[in-house]
Prior knowledge:
Blueprint: H1 15-22, E1 26-29, E2 32-35, E3 45-48, E4 51-55, H2 58-61, H3 63-69, E5 73-76, E6 92-95, H4 107-122, E7 127-131, H5 137-149, H6 154-164, H7 172-187
Parallel strand pairs: 4-7, 5-6, 5-7
Antiparallel strand pairs: 1-2, 3-4
Helix pairs in contact: 4-5, 5-6, 5-7
Amino acid sequence: MAGTMVLSRCSQPSAAETLQQHDRRRVPANGTIAVIDKSDLFSVSYICPGLALCGALSIYTDKETVAILQPTFLINCADELPDTPLPDTVHRYHKVPVTDTTVTDLRPHMDAVADLIHQEYISGGTTIIHCAAGVSRSAAFCIAYLVKYRGMTMSNAYHHVTKCRPCINPNPGFIKQLLEFEGKFREE
Length: 188
């Protein structure tokens, strides 16, 4: 089949290497892959090793990227959506019941979600996190993860996620909460 990528288990390249081969429009940014021109809401965006971000439908519309990433953990951050049917490679699922409003408080979930993503990463897995569109809630949790576990400032994390997925736009309430979350790590 033309265009199909077959990966051998014994000499399988990393997800980052495979994505670079898969789409030459992706360029290195801070040791990870940033998506320059795939801002489409229906794509899965690689954020860093062990983490990708998307909207709910992207898991099914961007099957090629999902196949390359081979996610082992899926986090659904959309209270209004039913539980997500899981790709075959996913063995863990977590739902964060939050809505996308400026008064929704993500802070009670930020540490736990970042911890879950990091635990999956250190065990060799990859997490895909999604909300309805992959624009606000799940993007905010990606930023929180980068602040807590990748040592980034909130501003740097926001800009990094924007490079990877240009369509992100966490609501103003989430931005305020992320700044407070960052402050917790700057005090330590």
